[in-house]
Amino acid sequence: MIVFGILPSFTGRVKADTFALGAVATPFQLSGEHAANNIKVDWSLVAGASSYQIFQSSNAESGFRHTATVPGNTFDDYGLRVGETYYYQVQAFASNGTALGQSTEASAATFTVEDDYDSYDNTVLETFVPKSNLESGGLYYQYNYESDANGFLQFVQQTSTDGFNFAGNTTVLNRSEVCASVPGGYCILQSTNIVKNPTTGNFVMWAHLENNVDYTLAQVAVAEAVPGQPFTFIGTYQPEGQQSRDLTFFEDVDGSGYLISTANNNQDLNLYLLSSNWTTIISWPAILLAGQSREAPAMVHVDDYYYLFTSNTAGWYPSQGQYISASDLAGPWSESRDIGNTANFGAQSGWIATFGTQMAMMADRWGAEWAPPEESNSQRMLPISFGNGYATYGFYETIKYNVTSGGIVPVQSGKILSIGKPVSDSGLSTDAPGDAVTYAASKANDGIQTDEDNYFKSNFVPFWWQVDLQTNASISQIDMTTNLVKGSETYYGYTIMASWDGSYYIQLVDGSTNTAVGFVSNKISSTYKFRYIKVNVYRVVNVQNGGEADWARGVDEIMVYGTT
Ligand SMILES: *[C@@H]1O[C@H](CO)[C@@H](O)[C@H](O)[C@H]1NC(C)=O
Ligand SMILES: *[C@@H]1O[C@H](CO)[C@@H](O)[C@H](O)[C@H]1NC(C)=O
Ligand SMILES: *[C@@H]1O[C@H](CO)[C@@H](O)[C@H](O)[C@H]1NC(C)=O
Ligand SMILES: *[C@@H]1O[C@H](CO)[C@@H](O)[C@H](O)[C@H]1NC(C)=O
Ligand SMILES: *[C@@H]1O[C@H](CO)[C@@H](O)[C@H](O)[C@H]1NC(C)=O
Ligand SMILES: *[C@@H]1O[C@H](CO)[C@@H](O)[C@H](O)[C@H]1NC(C)=O
Hints:
By secondary structure, this protein is mainly beta. The protein has 3 domains: about 1-5 and about 20-115, Immunoglobulins (Immunoglobulin-like, Sandwich), CATH 2.60.40; about 130-290, Tachylectin-2, Chain A (5 Propeller), CATH 2.115.10; about 425-564, Sandwich (Jelly Rolls). The chain is built from 2 helices and 42 strands. The strands form 9 sheets. Strands 35, 36, 37, 38, 39, 40, 41 and 42 form an 8-stranded antiparallel sheet that branches. Strands 1, 5, 6, 8, 9 and 10 form a 6-stranded mixed sheet that branches. A hairpin with an 8-residue loop joins strand 26 and strand 27 (about 320-325).
């Protein structure tokens, strides 16, 4: 679907003439350079737009000037002066030249990147362990969930003086307490949130409780502890008589606590206000995303807006992430907008890590649950940018972060070389009249990654697609996002070839045994420079049953990174 955000307020320098689209700007570093002197501009798609013009201004040069025209909703501004703020506005145009809308103003400052960062590699199976936020009297706490064949066994408390390295094992809550109300006396806990209440100084646990057989109880479980002491189990129940499964805790800026929990057979998300000690539900102010079957809720408050990120209910497989925003928790909330990309970069919307004032989506890649499985589950760190109710996150090869000082720097392996460049293919779809236009080869390199209907569709499988970079380039990375049909998710067997003259090709990637669904990212290192990048797709396989699913074929985006 094509979405555009009609934002409730507009504070740009230039007043929007039709409506304002959301836009954000994100500073980033190019691999091997010493400054975050590049800015990525992202904005909401506009229905009917065929091109977008980007206008840039800086402190040094007053006034906006046209800097680029692009087919999609992303633009990289490279090689900027360091230590300067840049401002951007975007205008959307129909193919007949009619202006369709103008963005809010987005800005970002470039900066020198110091050496004191840890680094997170998004191309391997990494897991991010944050510093514990359960601190009391200089001691940090964590609680390990232990289970056996009959489900939940106990929570074991460990302590730390630095928030990272934990030791000591003390059982602080056990099965006979937590599962007492469940017939048979066995239960499981999921979505466990343990938080410190600023008023009482106590730790409060909220979790989703089920018996150890099925998901029919749909209850919350709540417990409270004086830090360092065993938990007192308070009870399990359905809040306001509503089913409650996947849940998250949210602390508002004024210290109020909320639970956000899936209800109504996982179709709705209910928002519950907690008492000031956070142990009791006192009201039910809103139903969010009614009937939309979203899960994995994660809420943050940034500037004057609340943002709620959610995942599709798509089992363990990657799915399009979405978010809603509002200036008041009780609403009105925006429509649910797509974010990231159609495959959420090979993961599902998850929890949000905070680094000072900056945040990253820690998207869950449940690879160990896939068929065939990956070695382990992992997470992708996707830096989030926010602006006036609009949000975006992107995929970078590496993220630099500092848990102490709070910084975060996205590092891109190279410049994006593929967007808007000439393409060719082995034959376009003739499934339906108009397919050759609707699913043209150029849909795979227009930079549009959040529109599930915007993809290149070949006439058959196997097929090939090629982009002409129009110049020789050193290639650092090639990412491919493929069409996902919920319930029939697919993986692609493919190879990537490259050529400097269009006749002699060298193989850069052998993806013939790939089984990753929806999104693949390939690091490239070759001593040669190339002008043509050709992707050959040999098979499209339904991961749910292992059968061919050529009917689901489609390439949302192929992104080629490198230096010219
Ligand atoms: C130009 O295209 C837009 C969007 O498709 C349409 O609404 C408008 O009527 C067109 N204007 C003219 C003059 O054709
Ligand atoms: C993070 O920032 C702090 C304070 O500026 C600094 O001392 C530290 O070396 C940095 N690096 C890491 C990895 O924490
Ligand atoms: C504490 O428990 C963990 C598993 O939860 C175990 O690996 C570790 O050996 C235990 N440590 C001690 C000191 O018992
Ligand atoms: C569980 O905890 C309760 C309360 O602390 C205690 O009385 C009971 O002995 C514990 N049960 C087990 C099996 O440890
Ligand atoms: C927490 O607050 C609720 C509602 O005000 C109250 O009923 C409950 O007794 C409090 N719990 C504790 C342990 O003070
Ligand atoms: C492109 O690179 C290839 C391989 O390095 C080289 O042979 C060729 O001459 C280059 N072409 C141009 C136009 O620079």
